[in-house]
Amino acid sequence: MRKSILNMLRNNANEYLSGEEISRQLSVSRTAIWKHMQTLKQAGYEIEAHPRQGYRLRSVPDRLLPDEIRDQLKTTMLGQHEIYYFDDIDSTNNEAKKQANLGCHEGAIVLSEAQNRGRGRIARSWFSPSGKGIWLSIILKPPFLPSDAPKCTLLAAVAVTKAIRTITKVQCGIKWPNDILYKGKKIVGILTEMNAEMDAINYIVIGMGINVNIDKDEFPEELREIATSLSQASGQPIARLTLLQAILAELETEYNKVIQHGFSQMLDEWRQLSVTLGQTIDALGGSRQFSGVAIDIDQDGTLLVQTEEKIERIIAGDISIRPKV
Amino acid sequence: MRKSILNMLRNNANEYLSGEEISRQLSVSRTAIWKHMQTLKQAGYEIEAHPRQGYRLRSVPDRLLPDEIRDQLKTTMLGQHEIYYFDDIDSTNNEAKKQANLGCHEGAIVLSEAQNRGRGRIARSWFSPSGKGIWLSIILKPPFLPSDAPKCTLLAAVAVTKAIRTITKVQCGIKWPNDILYKGKKIVGILTEMNAEMDAINYIVIGMGINVNIDKDEFPEELREIATSLSQASGQPIARLTLLQAILAELETEYNKVIQHGFSQMLDEWRQLSVTLGQTIDALGGSRQFSGVAIDIDQDGTLLVQTEEKIERIIAGDISIRPKV
């Protein structure tokens, strides 16, 4: 009922809607309508109530509420099944793995306004302040071999970059394998985890932390020189809901393309959106250490680096890279 | 206390041990000793009680009890931490994944006398009658990349084959990638599952179903021509406990070798224990279908098959193989 009232308000956003009209269309008492309006206000909806003219929706809350996400969502799978929504959570990836183990649908998503133990790759943490970003995990059950899973990270990076460019006009790019940067600073991190047999993937969880409306001085000091946000990059606040919907739509499109036609087109898009290719980099970690020019990724997503002697191959996790100073 | 009494009985297996002696050594009343003896009998221990001479251990139960496993176990990790033991369970792999998610130690194991939903690769079931086999799952946290995980299956196959050959003298061999056969019939199936980030394995669960003391007519009819057991192969019943301890010890040895020296020695052992290499096979499934001679496995564990035209590469899960009729 609350959803029906909200839909009526939304469809009449520019004019007042009388309590009588709502009561008639939804066959509900005026008192019940009043109570629902109070609940909506408590959830953060700004609703103007005029004694004679009725109700008018002034603004929806800046929250990623499941009903708001599904409204106008242009997907058939992602976000159309379970949306697990939290005010605060340890890590959306942890919750997503829990739900996947309990047997949720492919395309289920986990969202939280804040994460208190947001995770990056390996054991790094991810700063996830309340209401300021999109802290999202997506559950997929792809028909790939486990060895193809790293390419799902590349796929997610492509989809998110395209969505960000379309919605915010911020010309961000992908640092191999799965960070999204703007002018060298991190805007998005992606953490993919999988559960697999040797033969088949049971599920993968694609987690992403997207810094949307975080001011420079809101970042902890140690992050200010290496991280930024979309609002900083574009100079204006960004509607999280619109961006989230665009990301889900892009991701579903890319995913379906890969399932139908394989990875090669996605890898080409990745190459075009990359800020790593063509760059002189230092490769660090593991037992190897070298510098060279990142010349390409191969069909497995391995980074190829031309050093003075030969072409080095870098697998994610093996070695980390940074631009040569 | 029960364990101490059992140890005393075990160390005096050929003679009677007086209640007075036990009472003195363990500082416990005669009545308490009598009660512990009743509990041990209920657990399946055969204990002879002679009015004047005392107690004597005649046999231990044919059960894979954690205390019995740890007694004389020659490992430092496998089976030395948690042993989750069940009379009946859906699947030891499911339980192992649950325990791994809750944060158990590396080397923890799950055992059940029976499985009511034992699983083989993909969605196949595994016949797991009570007390007749070793239905075991092992939790490892290897420092490998996820792309190395399939080799853990090969490693398990090597260790189990070696342990079986040593303990039972049954000359079984490995069918690529992870079945253990005797005269073409399956004796052991291995199902490895992993939980990983793109960079690192969180944990792997190596599940194995070992047909130990199953008579031919105890198998469901549809399995009689394709499966067999160690008791059938050797013509006598096999002590499950001894075999289990040998498997854990071999597996730990192989695992430590791989961590210290890499996979190449293990892959050589695999080649020697394989019944697939040198065999003319039909490869089936997927979009490809061809016949050829299995000539080798490469460093990733991929099977190389020489057809008339070229060398085909087979990844587990991609295609299944069977001997050419």
Question: How would you describe this protein?
Answer:
The structure is a homodimer of 325-residue chains. The first copy, chain A, has helices at residues 2-11, 19-26, 30-42, 66-70, 92-102, 149-168, 230-234, 240-261, 264-273; strands at residues 46-50, 54-59, 83-89, 109-115, 133-140, 173-175, 179-182, 185-197, 201-211, 280-284, 290-297, 303-306, 311-314, 320-323. Chain A is α+β, with helices and mostly antiparallel strands and 325 residues long. Chain A has three domains: 2-59, Orthogonal Bundle (Arc Repressor Mutant, subunit A), CATH 1.10.10.10; 66-273, 2-Layer Sandwich (BirA Bifunctional Protein, domain 2); 280-323, Roll (SH3 type barrels). In chain A, strand 3, helix 5 (92-102) and strand 4 form a beta-alpha-beta unit. The longest helix of chain A has 22 residues, at 240-261. The radius of gyration of chain A is 22 Å and the shape is elongated. At the A-B interface, helix 6 and strand 8 of A face helix 6 and strand 8 of B.
Structure described in brief:
Two copies of one chain form a homodimer. With 325 residues, the first copy, chain A, is an alpha+beta fold.
